[in-house]
Amino acid sequence: MLFPAPGKVIHQFAEDKGKILINIKSSVGIVLQGFLLAIIVAIPLGLFIGWNARLGNAASYITKFFSSIPPIVYIPYGIALLPTFRSVSVFVIFLATFWPVFAGTMSGVLGVDKKVIDSAKVLNVSKPEMLFSVILPASLQQIFLGCNQGLSVSFILLTSAEMIGARDGMGYYVKYYSDFGDYTRTITGLLVIGFVVIAVTFLFNKLQSYLLRWKR
Fold first, then answer.
1. How far apart are CA 15 and CA 215, in angstroms?
2. pTM for the full model?
3. H-state helical runs in the chain
4. How far is residue 196's CA from residue 201's CA, in Å, rounded to a whole number?
């Protein structure tokens, strides 16, 4: 009963395919929304703060403090302050992604070879061009490390959040049917979550390889 045969799981997936696809769309949409929002905020902020050595060193301690707090603890506050559970989920994903990407960006900026910066200064490169055309490409490897960390944690947090109070999403699907003792659907949901995470990670790694192809 707890571990249904593979044939039953495949049959259940075919039977619930429409419902599962709707839940996948909901979960992946929330992750992408929070993830992209965090990247849009964290990368420029990390570039500007990391460029200033004093600010960068001070911000690194703040980053370590806030990144050590599990974002899932903010869910009760999000539920109290935000209008919908979807907005709460996006907020939690944003926090889960922001700190690793911010820290990775600052680490990348602080680790840029001084010779590269000096060469750019000799060529009278403007500050915006220095940040986005010289330092940003040189920091991409560290930025992607932060993005990978944030992406991995995002799916874990989202599934946990959906099990608490969502009305759709793969976490909700697993929790709903496990409460009724329907372990065929529970196992189906768990496997689908695994395949979705693998697919998203694969696509992200392809993007990373493409953007870092000049380093080969």
1. 47
2. 0.85
3. 6-15, 17-51, 53-67, 75-81, 85-110, 114-122, 127-129, 136-165, 170-179, 183-211
4. 8
166-169 contacts: CB < 8 A, separation 24 or more?
166/85, 166/89, 167/85, 168/22, 168/23, 168/26, 169/23, 169/26, 169/27, 169/30, 169/89
- Fold classification of 6-215 is MetI-like fold (1.10.3720)
Name the helix (H) or strand (E) containing 69.
Answer: none
The closest alpha carbon to 34, from 101, 116, 118, belongs to: 101
Burial 76-99 (b: 16+ CB within 10 A, else e): eebeeeeeebbbbbbbbbbbbbbb
Alpha helices in 52-135 (DSSP H): 53-67, 75-81, 85-110, 114-122, 127-129
Alpha-carbon distance 119 to 115, whole Å? 6
Tens digit of pLDDT for each residue in 181-209?
888 999 999 999 999 999 999 999 998 88
Tokens of 116: 């590269």
Q: How far is CA 166 from the centre of its chain?
A: 19
* 182: exposed, middle or buried (Cβ count in 10 Å: 0-12, 13-18, 19+): middle
Mind listing the pLDDT tens digit for each residue in 133-160? 888 888 888 899 999 988 888 888 888 8
For 204, residues 6+ apart whose C-beta sits below 8 A from its C-beta are 147, 148, 151
